[in-house]
Amino acid sequence: MKSKSSSLLAGSLFLAATSAALAHPGAAQANGVACGFSHPLTGWDHLVAMIAIGLWAAQLGGRASWRVPAAFVGVMALSAIGGHFIGVIPGLDQGLAASVLALGLLVACAGRLPLGASVTLAAIFAMFHGLAHGAEMPATSSGLAYGAGFVAATALLAASGLGLGLGTARLSERAPRLLGWGIAAVGAGLLAS
Description:
The protein is mostly helical. The chain has one domain (about 30-190). It contains eight helices and no strands. Helix 2 (about 30-40) crosses helix 3 (about 45-60) and helix 2 (about 30-40) packs parallel to helix 7 (about 140-170). The radius of gyration is 16 Å and the shape is globular.
């Protein structure tokens, strides 16, 4: 059991030490389902936040295990429409990084909030990510395909986080919390960069 916890901690520290990937390559590169699907997978801010949503939902359990990720995916998709028309907003990258840090701390501390507050917090975090995705969406008709791709990837990442949360909780009560500290470290690193 101790070696599994050490492995989780080592993996979390590796993620925290890795420099942030450029998550927002520019609208000129955003085209089609494949690009939309790959976008959340290429930047630490999106990748880690969406996995963290699933981890936190697993810790909350019950109806929150599906409502929190569903709220995140739904609000992110709606916010992307706004981001598409508004464009890049000053401070958006700091909001993304802060959402990763906050989600990491929620997982690390096994933060228990009422269902409504958990869903609302997930929705607030999703707005930052949706605005960023939407700002990258191409102005052409392929924007819909791009959007479908990033929504599908987001749902898959959140489901992966949920599965990871349920699986690691079976190994040890501390395992998800160690992952949370790693996620918080990634968020802190993103804020500092």
